[in-house]
Amino acid sequence: MWTMKRNAVSAVGGAIILLFYFLNKITFLFGASFAEGKVTGYEVIGRRITIHYPIVRFDSPKGWVTFKAESNLEIPQNGKVPVVYKTSDPAEAYIFTFWGFWAGGLVISVIVFLAWIIFFTSFFSRETVFGFEPGKLRLRIIRPPEEQERPRFSFRRPLRRKNP
């Protein structure tokens, strides 16, 4: 049986979350092509709080393609931008900058990563050991002896005796 403490399990889980994100982006890049695009305008959403989406147009082997990029990128009208697009589907395209390609999903992955870490640090003590049995998809929580002897919380009310 393999065993790991709480902090190791939370770190491995967090690493898997971030690894999944980066592998997803890297596999996109392996099947992608690059082009130079031009910002043709902006789509503005909202009245009081507005979100600006650049509309980018670029030339691909399948013809001209127009797409809506990530929000609030500071690119001037008619500005030239690097574009990365899926070769098999040019409509799936991104502005190839940190904020245009990497940042959106990275923020979500970091939020999921932090939620994972908070979950493990909140519900399990530092000394809790998790056991993994090879060949079985089963996780065992091996609690330290001092935690096993601790009385559990009960929602039952104690019975009250009425005074005569």
Q: How are the elements arranged and paired?
A:
Blueprint: E1 2-5, H1 6-30, E2 32-45, E3 51-60, E4 63-68, E5 80-86, E6 93-95, H2 98-123, E7 129-132, E8 139-142, H3 145-148
Antiparallel strand pairs: 1-7, 2-3, 2-5, 3-4, 5-6, 7-8
Helix pairs in contact: 1-2
Task: Tell me about this structure.
This protein has 164 residues and is α+β, with helices and mostly antiparallel strands. It contains 3 helices and 8 strands; from the N terminus they run E-H-E-E-E-E-E-H-E-E-H. The protein has helices at residues 6-30, 98-123, 145-148, and strands at 2-5, 32-45, 51-60, 63-68, 80-86, 93-95, 129-132, 139-142. Strands 4-3-2-5-6 form a 5-stranded antiparallel sheet. A hairpin with a 2-residue loop joins strand 3 and strand 4 (63-68). The longest helix has 26 residues, at 98-123. The termini are far apart. The model has no long low-confidence stretch (mean pLDDT 81).
Which short descriptors sum up this protein?
single chain; 164 residues; three-stranded antiparallel β-sheet; elongated
| Percent of residues in beta strands | 25-35%
**Cα distance spanning the termini:** 59 Å
- Characterize the biggest β-sheet: 5 strands, antiparallel
Order of helices and strands: EHEEEEEHEEH
